[in-house]
Design goal:
The structure is a homodimer. In chain A, α4 packs across α9. Chain A has a single domain, classed as Farnesyl Diphosphate Synthase (Orthogonal Bundle), CATH 1.10.600.10. In chain A, strands 1-2 form a two-stranded antiparallel sheet. Chain A is an all-alpha fold. In chain A, 72% of the residues lie in helices and 1% in strands. The first copy, chain A, is globular. The interface between A and B is large, with 38 and 38 residues.
Amino acid sequence: MDIADRLMTLGHEVDSVMERYLERDAHRDFAPVAKYQIGVGGKRVRSALTLLSCEASGAERSRALLPAAMIELIHNYSLIMDDIIDRGEVRRGKPTVLAKYGETMALLAGMHHREVLDEVVNDCSHPDEMRALLIDAVKKTIEGERLDILFEQSGREGSYFTKHRSKNVSIESYFDMIGKKTATLIRAACLAGALAADAPQILQESLAGYGWKVGLAFQVVDDYLDIFGEKTGKQRGKDIIEHKLGNAVIIFALKALDREARNHLLSILRTEKVSTSLLKSALKLLEGTRARQMTYELAQKLIAEGKRSLENLQESDAKTSLLDLADFVGNRLY
Amino acid sequence: MDIADRLMTLGHEVDSVMERYLERDAHRDFAPVAKYQIGVGGKRVRSALTLLSCEASGAERSRALLPAAMIELIHNYSLIMDDIIDRGEVRRGKPTVLAKYGETMALLAGMHHREVLDEVVNDCSHPDEMRALLIDAVKKTIEGERLDILFEQSGREGSYFTKHRSKNVSIESYFDMIGKKTATLIRAACLAGALAADAPQILQESLAGYGWKVGLAFQVVDDYLDIFGEKTGKQRGKDIIEHKLGNAVIIFALKALDREARNHLLSILRTEKVSTSLLKSALKLLEGTRARQMTYELAQKLIAEGKRSLENLQESDAKTSLLDLADFVGNRLY
């Protein structure tokens, strides 16, 4: 089994916990809706990180089962709401909650997740710390989502977007956005595992630092694969079709291109409906710059920093898995 | 000042608290969205009930300020989400969060409310009990909303509704629905005040019982006014236009009507677009039954029971206000 399969097997240990909590107080006609997102799949990277971080801190990983369920439920909560916002119909080849049950039921399922989260936290061994992680993670996810949307150059209606849209995204703003949207929860996943293990401060910080860097790398790699990926099962250039400036490759390219080419790329991102030929032009512009190389190097740098953050940890199988996972993220690039 | 104005003044004491918590961690471009619902108004009945219940239990009402803010934030959270579900554009003459900022921002504002709720609860003097009230209230509100929607006879797309729609609503199912949708939170409002006052069990139960009955009465009166109300500022028969079976008047009428008239009324509720003349026919059918009288008597009975629930409480200005409030709810009927 490669690291992805091992992680997935590990991470799925939380499924029955999630199910049990999601079922509680749910009417029999509502329970399938509430639990549906579990079956939509996902790699369970986040829950696996919590379990591994607990083990790498020297404790039995079973102590982190509830915190791992909490982390995965936060992720699922955000996916359900995200699909409502983005009208997402398919995830991993399956209909989303939105597509399967409609917007009203998806919204109620999302709200139900948030109540369940409080109940899971109540039953954790460090409820106050876990709740602080939960609130921080959801608040940052909300803000990350807001920023990501404001980085879109077209496609949303309403004066809020025309008023607050970012027509220019610096690499710093990009990092701020992906930190909130993606890295905060992955950091929280690792920290929750360390907390569950009663790890000393220094280990908590090491694991949190690892999660933060790997979380950023995750998103950078996602951006890279969106533009250059093959055999990912997703359409190439989806971010361009969705008018997103918030993609590392695009940001690096815009900096590298001359004025004329930059304006051309921006005009494509601002086109209401990006045709296949416009998409091709955009991809060609991106390929003509050093953006690919820069994005690749950025991801590798983040992964190396993440791995280095684990130096304080004693050797263990769990630590090895964490290091392997970081490498695996990097190896998705080619 | 009549009781409504006095309550409103009292209830608005929580506004600055809500504002402070909603602003926390909110980007300056997000804070106005997060706080917008406060300004949409509302009578602040729920927060006033918490403050009065605390006072009626013999404590300073300032002790219930955070619990009262919690209750009002739950209410606002549910309104924001409800407006997304029902495409509600106007409340009390003002644009809803949805209408003002669009669906994406409304959803993010709603999610933000739920995080803020956890932070308010953290700062309450009985966090565990308050959190239990919060979770119970939101879960029941979700289920009440689901039931209310399933009682609609047309107008929602998706197989979930065609599959689970209730074509027949008993008075018991109606009470189950309004208990969850409306009375649970009003009960929680009173109980939160009693908890904040460290009231003995018997007072907690008295106030909770009062809140439950008055909460049910609230909804029954709303149903009555929807059908028979004049000068309410709302369109008469909105529930008919919205295909709702979950209205006390309609349920009583359906029981009282002969088969032909009942089928006619049901067919109107099932008409995709209820025209003015169909609405008139429906109202005429309802007026021809004892449903008006029965709904009136039901509301008065609930109000009397709610008032009786306060018998254990010592006399106080706050108790008098609670009794006045119950009467006020009943006096909206004519």
